[in-house]
């Protein structure tokens, strides 16, 4: 894919933050890097199939995922499809 950075693996945090800082948006799960992207003001496409939304930031985010989860209800979340992610990206690009 053109203009996509694959930074999987053992990369130091400072390098990851630099990549996010200069990115147009960030796609990820509810993790520390999603929070970094949000703090840097980047639009975030958050694949949120296993975290209650109240554990996540509430602005500058497109949240994709299963049903609204409560603090104790983690049973059988819906899996986000590739098509849902692509559709969300089209909304911000």
Describe the structure.
With 93 residues, the protein is of the alpha/beta class. The chain has one domain. The chain is 30% helix and 13% strand. The protein contains 3 helices and 3 strands. It has helices spanning 13-21, 32-39, 82-92, and strands at 26-29, 44-47, 61-64. A 3-stranded parallel β-sheet has the order 1-2-3, with helices on both faces. Helix 2 links the parallel strand 1 and strand 2. It is globular and about 30 Å long. Mean pLDDT is 76; it is low at 67-76.
List keywords for this structure.
single chain, 93 residues, three-stranded parallel beta sheet, 3 strands, 13% strand
Secondary structure layout plus pairing:
Layout: H1 13-21, E1 26-29, H2 32-39, E2 44-47, E3 61-64, H3 82-92
Parallel strand pairs: 1-2, 2-3
